[in-house]
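Weekly structure sync - notes
Attendees: PM, LS, DV (DV joined late)
Agenda: review two folding runs queued last week.

Item 1: First target. Sequence and structure tokens pasted below for the record.
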Amino acid sequence: MTVDNAEASLHQRHRSVMPGWLTTYYDDPLELVEGSGRHVTGGDGRTYLDFFGGLLATMVGHDIPEITEAIRRQAGRLLHSSTLYLIRSQIELAEKIARRAPVDNPRVFFVNSGSEAVETAFLLTTTARRSNQVIALRGSYHGRSFGTVAATGIRGWSATALSPLQVTYSHSGYKYRSPFAHLDDAAFTAACRDELQTMIDTSTSGDIACYIAEPIQGAGGFATPPDDFFTAMKSVLDRYDIPFVSDEVQSGWGRTGRSYFGIEHYGIRPQAITFAKGLANGISIGGVVAEADLMNCLTANSISTAGGNPIAMSAANAVLDYIESHDLQDNADRVGAILRAGLEEIASTCPLIGEVRGSGLMIGVELVEPNTRTPAVGHTNAALAEARAAGLLIGKGGLAGNVLRVTPPMTVTESEAQTALEILRDVLSKVYATAAVGH
């Protein structure tokens, strides 16, 4: 059997036993079988430059010796315990997170995923406030579980109208498609602030469990608010003593290049932060760091069978140590600036690009029909496929699925960034040429 036939056979087997809604990238889906640094090898035998990092979960890179060895060492000792026993590596990791989190008197609880982390934040805040009313942002994504879907502000990711929460969706910092887009940043922020006040006064009881926000929206296409945006929103929330929950599943640990947690850049000290994904570099993990009074509000028993397990904790400790010892936040800032500048230079001559945005190594490239703001979904899919054909893996997102997501591991080099830019320049030129012919 040839490699291509083997890939096709695997895809057929996938479709025979997996859910129909479990979508994959590309018409001819790719299996990843091996990785090293920022490169992966596919089941097709080709090597690719990985600028998506397992949907931002492979945050440091593939097969990093210090992380691999930490996992191997722990696996040789003990695979599993539970929170009914003391777990040394869990306590050590909680101490590291508590020292760095911009949360007063922090307590840390570990779970297994971002969805479970956000569910935990909802459990805490709804219990503490005796309310199931939540304010979320338009364009937000918080997970695939029942409560997190309820607070997700993207129709394409909202599988059901049923909800355990009463959610009011306020304006996000996504200015490009906002009804306030014509305003400058200060006026835009003021308009969103005033609208939040109006929503609270007219659409809620005022007793609100929490306001939840991603500092940079992930699935929403890396929408990045003006610098004063969240400060203005919090000025309204504080009038009602509404807790601020920062969803850092994608933006945490220095990836933005601006701060260790994304919300710090905006000068906010939230009552809770959710985290997951890259903390264990691909091993399943999640958690919440919250103010002690909020974390301790539960009166019923609660444990986590696998949350905080020794394997994930060992991996995460190694990841945070590696980020610190290799100054990867600075690398994210420096190399991210090279990528951002290069993409903006490409945008200046490519009418297919409506906007380049993001921070550090969270960069979104919104594609539109040339000379309009109409989402170019087909062209986005074409760019994704052409990038793969050229040896580069990137992601996509956005409200309409028309935003390319460029998110390499935090160890990415300047040389790799330049290679990716060269590929993207050729890819977008090719896709635009096709679009121009179509018009």
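Item 2: Second target, run right after the first with the same settings.
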Amino acid sequence: MRPLLLLPEMLTFGGGLMVLVAGSFLPRQRQWWARIAAATTLVGVIVIAAIAIAAPDQTAFEGAFVLDTATAVARVSAAVGALVVLAIAGDEIQGAARESDTYALVLFSTTGILVLAGTSDLLVLAAGFLLASVPLYGLIGLLRSAPAAEATMKTYLIGALFSITLLLGISVLYGLSGVTRYDQLAAGLRGAPGAAVATGVVAVLAGLMFEAGGVPAHFWVPDAAEAANGVAAVFLTTVPKIGALVALYRLATGLPHSVAWPLLIAVFALMSMTLGNLAAYGQRDPRRLLGWSTVSQVGYLLVPVAAAGRSQLALASLLFYLVAYTITNSAAFAVSTALPDRRDLNTYQGAARAQPWLAGALVVALLGLVGTPPTAIFIGKLTTATAAWDGGQAWLAVAVFANSLLSLFYYLRWIVPLFQKADGAEDFAPKAWSTGTAVILGGLSLGLGIAAGPLWDVLAAAPTR
């Protein structure tokens, strides 16, 4: 049956409902059962999606949803990112009053992200966007503090603005073309007024940038990363990017060439990577630094989207970078969650001597975010820059390398204190779940970078549309 092609999405949403209802009856000391249920659901999604990678491409609901390599990779990456969140939750919110609520919100948002990644219809895109976005507000606000309340309000207001922008763009494009399927847009918009088409395209792309966390909808990301608890920070800086960027790629391949959308996305990419790097320089809080780093990473991830349809490497490089970013960024945040009270870079002095494994994971993660070989993101940045060069945007490829070099200096501001001597270094007492998660993810980042060939072969064989 065609609806069963959406089994991972149905499992994720059903798991969220189950966790939400069951959590209402579980005593606080037994809320960990909800975490096991959520983790089991996500493992099931990973298994189903991994099997589907080798399956032939299919569509469901009259072409409104596509089952292809990009969908399968997005499912696996999003589920892995959510599993990392659950692992970190074992330290941070175990036994908390809102523990099961947190897991339910993570699963609901993940469902929307999966819908975003697989849809090829503007109306379904809007539904997925809202389902992915609304739970984020709740996740950020679960921490009862003034900064978290401010970050929640900022995220909500920006999210509402760009949700309206997205819906406006969809309305304009539908009104002009009479269709909502991506593959029918170019033909439907042929002969439409150029200014109106440009308005619709810009509005839709800008709306999706909220979910991606890049310019011009990036303002909420650093505040939320700093003010929210570690569980929410890891999730919101990692998993939503997967759905949003795959959705951007799919939509871009269906846009008419009468609108200079590659230039628009390239400008978004350049502004995101440059602004994110420059703003990260003055940060002292590790999580806020990673928040601005997230904005810059979105810029790199937008590069292959700008090359969509003009380079055979575009889709494969985007998917590989998303997998690498999910692992590497989660590792860095896991370290900050393992040491939640150290909210200044200098407080990490002596960590390499006191906690060598944790410090090693952080070094791998931060150098990975720079794009240092042999980490996985090095392969991602190299292939995305190559895709931009192949797509006739050599200046964007140069911007990738220039910004990568620029980012090295603020990541070093966190790495250097690890190896400095400091009194009280023996007071490091990291959280067990977060430490183990960080070490495993750091190893995966290295392993994926060293043995990238098999995964790249699978991704490179995928159709580019």
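Discussion on item 2: The mean pLDDT is 92.
Action: LS to circulate a short write-up before next sync.
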